[in-house]
Amino acid sequence: MTLSSAREIFTKLQNQKVCEILILSGEVHPNSPRRQEWFERIYDLCELALSMGFLPHTNAGPLSFKEMEQLKNVNVSMGLMLEQLTPKLLDTVHRHAPSKLPELRLQQLEWAGKLKIPFTTGLLLGIGETEDDCWETLEAIAKLHRNYHHIQEVILQPHSPGTQQSFDAPPFDPHKLPEVIATARQILPEDITIQIPPNLIPDSQWLITCIEAGARDLGGIGPKDEVNPDYPHHQEKDLRETLQPYGWELVERLPVYPQFDGWLSLKLRDAVKSWRSGERVKFATDKISKG
């Protein structure tokens, strides 16, 4: 994407109550001659988003320590899904994805902690893992967080088949999700929020059950779900109508939690402050709290 194309998109978003710009990218091999150009484009997109009043969050696959250190200057938070740490998936769903090496992804989380980058990670459920595999992945996240206290939230994402994937497997059974959430809540430290994507949970009653099991974040609600384009985001109004009868209320939040504001550069803190003070209309993502 060119910067001029991005500017056009950002300009349209300025009137749609959007606060967070999620920077996603296909991966370029670390030793590729294109790597520097690729990285500079990501950095420039983040700078552009900031200059237009948005708060960038980058998730572009595994990065070097130096790349993460540089992106810290233009991102209020960053993220990378662990998916699952079991190496057996390298023989199945991840067999053509060298960047899915468990130790490589776990290293990213550790570097983020060392660099004091507020971070989001998560698990992809239903890709060939066992229950024990899930618990071991959650334990690894918990251990790193106890060392660095940098994980904002863990996403529990049920595998949902889409038209743009080659992985042939049935969707994760949504009826199993509340149990996974409840166990995750026991494993993870209390200051890590559990996030679930409501557009991947087909039954509104099961969404409520997931919340009651311990989920407290519904992620981003935007014009389009770029990660799961076959599953449109719910509208804010519809979510409120689903939650309110059960005593739950949508609460807006920014892509960086307040306790991490002190980790940001002065420039980023000023950008965040303008949103927290209500000088701009906030919307980016929604967190649930008991009403």
UniProtKB/TrEMBL annotation:
Catalysed reaction equations from the record: 5-amino-5-(4-hydroxybenzyl)-6-(D-ribitylimino)-5,6-dihydrouracil + S-adenosyl-L-methionine = 7,8-didemethyl-8-hydroxy-5-deazariboflavin + 5'-deoxyadenosine + L-methionine + NH4(+) + H(+)
Boundaries of every Radical SAM core domain copy: 1-199
EC number: 4.3.1.32
GO molecular function (one): 4 iron, 4 sulfur cluster binding
Cofactors (names): [4Fe-4S] cluster
Record has Transcription regulation as a keyword: no
Catalytic EC class: lyase
Pathway the protein acts in: Cofactor biosynthesis; coenzyme F0 biosynthesis
Keywords recorded for this protein, A-Z: 4Fe-4S, Iron, Iron-sulfur, Lyase, Metal-binding, S-adenosyl-L-methionine
Coiled coil regions, renumbered to chain: none
PANTHER family per record: 7,8-DIDEMETHYL-8-HYDROXY-5-DEAZARIBOFLAVIN SYNTHASE, FO SYNTHASE (COFH)
HAMAP family, per database record: FO_synth_sub1
Homology family: Belongs to the radical SAM superfamily. CofG family.
Binding partners and assembly: The FO synthase complex consists of two subunits, CofG and CofH.
General function of this protein: Catalyzes the radical-mediated synthesis of 7,8-didemethyl-8-hydroxy-5-deazariboflavin (FO) from 5-amino-5-(4-hydroxybenzyl)-6-(D-ribitylimino)-5,6-dihydrouracil.
Protein name: 7,8-didemethyl-8-hydroxy-5-deazariboflavin synthase
Organism field: Mastigocoleus testarum BC008
